[in-house]
Design a protein that fits this description.
An eight-stranded mixed sheet has the order 1-2-3-15-7-17-4-5, with helices on one face. By secondary structure, the chain is of the alpha+beta class. It is globular and about 60 Å long. It has five helices and 17 strands. Helix content is about 15%, strand content about 25%.
Length: about 290
């Protein structure tokens, strides 16, 4: 049984558009309320927290995650990564071996679960095995991206609603559409429009709530106009001044705010192993 509760922790902001490193913390041990509050404030301000040199079982990773919120549980109608009928695992192997998910290729900038009615508030990703090269993850500050828009664009997008179509209900072999141009194709899942400019539920800051390459549609705009606007916004998002690149080490846990960031993964050599574990936390309806 644990004999002590962690009551002090060090948090250092990194020289990047987002992110802070947390030291003097053993995530396998009980943590005092004042430290949890300190970590939650740092996440609100810096959007991602990086915990170094951790050694956790799946149960310990889950227990640590639950300090920050309830688990994200999707419905059968809105499947997500690793979903099976009636069940989505709570600890998901992000791995290219042993039945894991996401493979070895590039994963474009995205936030998780946008096609659900209440997308996850955040996730914790824990590194167990890391390839010698590649496989780095980038996180992008979507508040900075929003603030860098010109006034005219901000006014144009202020009240727009965006539908993100579920990528887990599409034919993986079909050409990927970046915008829903043909409205004659029948829908195969429920849709949940969310604000294109999302207000963070804790900070009150505005965020550009848009992935880089998922199929989307702007409510009320003609397809040609909507697709041009989305292409413009996606080009704007893809700027290094908005993101931080994380080079993984074994024992890292990165906890990110899914309401304030996008994340991207580099491809890596399929002959090397990359094994991480992910837990996602419940979120609220975007507004």
């Amino acid at each position: 049984m644990p004999t002590s509760t962690l009551t002090e922790v060090k948090i250092r902001s990194i020289d990047a558009p987002l992110g802070a490193i947390v030291t003097d913390l053993d995530a396998s041990q009980p943590i005092a309320p004042e430290v949890i509050l300190q970590l939650k404030k740092a996440l609100r301000d810096r959007h991602i927290l990086i915990f170094k040199e951790q050694q956790l079982s799946d149960e310990q990773l889950l227990n640590f995650s639950l300090y920050f919120g309830a688990l994200f549980v999707p419905s059968d109608e809105t499947p997500v990564l690793a979903s099976k009928p009636g069940e989505t695992p709570v600890v998901i192997p992000i791995s290219n071996v042993d039945g894991g998910y996401t493979g070895t290729g590039e994963l474009t900038f995205h936030s998780d679960h946008k096609w659900t009615p209440t997308p996850s508030s955040g996730s914790l990703l824990y590194a167990l095995e890391i390839p010698s090269q590649g496989g780095n993850t980038y996180w992008l500050n979507t508040n900075l991206a929003y603030e860098a828009l010109d006034k005219t664009t901000k006014e144009r997008i202020a009240d727009l609603q965006l539908i993100t179509y579920n990528p887990f209900l599409r034919d993986r072999n079909a050409p990927r559409s970046l915008y829903r141009l043909d409205k004659n194709i029948p829908l195969i899942s429920p849709i949940f429009p969310h604000p294109l400019v999302r207000t963070h539920p804790e900070s009150g800051k505005k965020h550009l709530y848009l992935d880089a390459a998922t199929e989307v549609e702007i409510v009320g705009l003609e397809p040609e106009d909507g697709s041009k606007l989305i292409e413009q916004l996606r080009q704007h998002l893809n700027q290094p001044k908005f993101y931080y690149q994380h080079k993984w080490s074994v024992g890292d846990i990165v906890y990110w705010d899914n309401q304030a960031t996008l994340h991207y993964r580099q491809a890596f050599d399929p002959n090397e192993r990359r094994v991480l574990k992910r837990v996602s936390l419940a979120g609220s309806r975007p507004f």
